Every structure is written in structure tokens, then in C-alpha cells.
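Student: Please help interpret what follows.
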Amino acid sequence: MKIGLLGLGTIGSGIYEHLLKRDDIQVVRILELLRHPGLEHLETSDFNEILNDPQIDTVIELIGGMEPAHTFTVQALKAGKNVVSANKLMLSHHMEEILTLARKMGVHYRYDASVGGSIPFLYNLMRHRSADRLTAISGIVNGTTNLILDIMQREGRGFEDVLAEAQLQGYAEANPAADIDGIDAQCKISIASAVAYQRYVRPEAVDTEGIRHITAGDIIHFKRLDRVCRLIARSTLNPNGTISAYVEPTLVASDATEAAVHLNNNTISVTGEYFGVHTFQGQGAGKDPTAFAVELGLRDILDGVSPRLNPIPQGYAEVDNGEAIHPYYLRTSATPGIPARALDGAYITDPISVREMHDLAKRLRAADPGLFFAGIQD
């Protein structure tokens, strides 16, 4: 297998180092603007040199973001090259186009690394889907936010302090918005839901709340409630055929599985009618875990794993978060305007739908920009 590698950042350098140890996969060209000593003979700033190289049969896309990742992916597929990617942002917005094009061209598009890092979640989700009717996905899918929440609650430190340390150590980006505002998790649950329910889920339809506004005072409340806060992504197949899909801080019981997931680890559960609940747990982010997932995708292509293991969803799901109902912790200086029990500067609401809570928070933020809320899990 001859590889054209797009990007030599943290993950790109990881997969390059991994592939140097193999004799059946060779990186022959690297798209990279910066030059790296000793790799000048492989590097190029012109994607066409990869696209038009007949010996390159597979492209690894690790440049991230929407563009030029989307354009390069489409061009590579049209040129009859396999593509392996960890790009959840681009894929979640262009999933129908990309999967359909890959099938049409008879090539592989492997995106196992886009959800769960080193956890073999999407691959097993595809296999589970082939033998059962899946009804729910739930879990911690963003390692950065889990790291921040875990340290805040175990060490009693403030959000800004922990975020700055995570950035210094390379766990959080200089601009952490995609993580702390829940966008990364939103893209991941969109992709996983499309695989599970075989209908595409538009990311913008997923109600999403991050952890940007959490405070040390909130942590004190959580401990009094004997709860642990985690950022949870969840989707459910509703009885009426619609799908509930959302991302929000969630208070789980102190003995819940999610409460025991520390630092940058992930845990993801899938529910099926026959097998019940299966849970996958492990490293959700980072150089080596993600490189491992990319390498698994390459290995599957070499082994001839059928692209039909990943069936193409049919149409788009109707997302209805009015079907998902639970109480909330709400900390705001504004008047909630809904049935709720006062809690020393915060509130515990009566059960309310996800859609109503997210809409309420948007309205209340006009008066209280620092508002924070978290779902309370049964």
C-alpha cells in the first residue's frame, strides 16, 4: 500500500512514526506547508502531486477542518483512491456525499478514527447494526472536556485554571471552542447516529451545550447532590421513528460508569433490542491512540474488509428532542419561569424536554450570559 499523507501535525506525525515500522505500508508523499528535516524528499505543498501519482492508492487525511479537507477528499475519491480520515467536522457535514461517492467509485472511505479515538467503536457499531436494531448511543466522546471536568471535581480547581493547564500540556487547543462548546461531541454523535439508525443526522439539528460556563460553585453543588458532571452525547431512536440527539453537561450518580472515567478517556455505550447494552472504553484522543485507529483502517483495507460493512444511510432523520425528558440543574441569576426547586443560588427543575431546556437557556442568556445547566441522569 502506497500512502499520500495530508498533514504532519500531532496525529500525522504519529501515524507516520507508526507506519515506519511496517513493511506493507509505505508513505511516499506528504502534503505539508512546513518543512521537516530529513523528510524534504517526501514533502510537497501541492496536493496535485499526490492526486496525480499513480502509485499512491490511499490518502490519509489529517489536516482537519472543513476546507480544503473536503475538496481534497472528494478529489481523491474521484481519482479512485481510498481515503482514511479522523475528520469528524468535515464528515458530519458531508457524510452523504462522501459515502455515496466512495461506493460509486468502488473505493474505501474509512473514518473509524473520527469517533472514539483508539476505541474500536464505529467498526463494532457497524457490525452490531448488521445483526440487531439499535435504539440508543450514549457516552463521553470528548477527551479534553472530560479531562477538565475530572480535574475540576477531583482537585477543586477552577475552569480557567484547568483549561490553561490542559492547553499547556497539549490536551486542549489554543482555541478550545470546538471542545468546550460541545461542537466536537456534536459532530461525533451525528456520525455515530447515522451509522446506528441508517439515517443521516444533520449536526445543526443536535441540541448542544458545552462546559464553558461551569464554575467552582457548581462543583460544590454537584458534591452536595452526590453527583459527578460529565459532558454526555446521546441519541435515541424514539418510538415514533424520530431521533433524539443532544450534547449537554450531565450529572450522573457518583457510582455510575461515566463517573469512573477519568482524565482524557472516553466511554461509549450502544443499546440494541437483542444484545442489550455494550460499552466501549479507552483512550479517546491523542497522538498515538488516534494514529492507532487510522492504522486499523489501513489494515482493514489491506485485508479486503468489504466497504459494504458500512451501509449507506437512507435519507435524513427527523430530530425531535421533545421526546427526551429529564430534570435539570440550572444556575442562573435570571428568573427560570418554569417549575423548579431553589438550591442556594441554583435550581433543580421539574422534568422538562431537552428541546425546551435548550431553548429556555438561549432566552435566559440575554439577561445572564454566564448561565450554566446540566441534565440530571436517572
About this structure: The chain has two domains: 2-110, 121-284+316-376. The domain at 2-110 is CATH 3.40.50.720 (Rossmann fold).
